[in-house]
Design goal:
Elements: H1 2-18, E1 24-25, H2 26-32, H3 40-52, E2 56-61, E3 64-71, E4 82-85, E5 91-93, H4 96-110, E6 120-123, H5 126-136
Parallel strand pairs: 4-6
Antiparallel strand pairs: 1-3, 2-3, 4-5
Helix pairs in contact: 1-3, 2-3
The protein binds zinc ion (2 copies).
Length: 137
């Protein structure tokens, strides 16, 4: 039994890792993993334990009652800030230089030490901004 649940967890975290720029609902994840014999309740159970370990983030969107999940446990993702587009829901990884700059500026001007791994800046990505501009013309 133990081995089996470890295998489910592995499949789930592999799947989340390979889709780590996306936000997905538990139902979407379960649908993608159906071929591997992982039930929706197993997905929920494993997501909850990954979330407890800080490897998965739970995300809610304004005006949407669904709960989305995103893998946040990638090693390199602990060292930078994430930018999240509220239009398309995509997550972007801030480069190290910009993260350092922001970190230093905030520390210097606000006397505040940011928690990089936990910080998400919400806004609109370049593509969505462009799409908006074009549709306005
Ligand atoms: Zn990242
Ligand atoms: Zn976008």
């Amino acid at each position: 039994m133990k081995v089996y649940s470890t295998k489910q967890r592995k499949s789930l975290s592999d799947y989340l890792l390979s889709h780590r720029d996306e936000e997905m609902t538990a139902a979407e994840i379960a649908a993608a993993l159906r071929g591997e014999g992982i039930s929706l309740s197993a997905v929920y159970r494993n997501l909850a334990s990954l979330e407890e370990e800080g490897l998965v983030q739970r995300i809610t969107r304004a005006g949407d009652r669904k709960i989305f999940f995103r893998f946040s446990g990638a090693e390199e993702c602990r060292e930078h800030i994430h930018l999240r587009c509220r239009k398309c829901g995509k997550t972007f990884h801030m480069d190290a230089g910009t993260t350092d700059l922001l970190d230093e500026t905030v520390a210097e001007n606000c006397g505040f030490k940011m928690d990089r791994a936990e910080t998400v800046i919400n806004g609109v990505c370049g593509d969505c901004e462009k799409a908006e501009q074009t549709s306005k013309k």
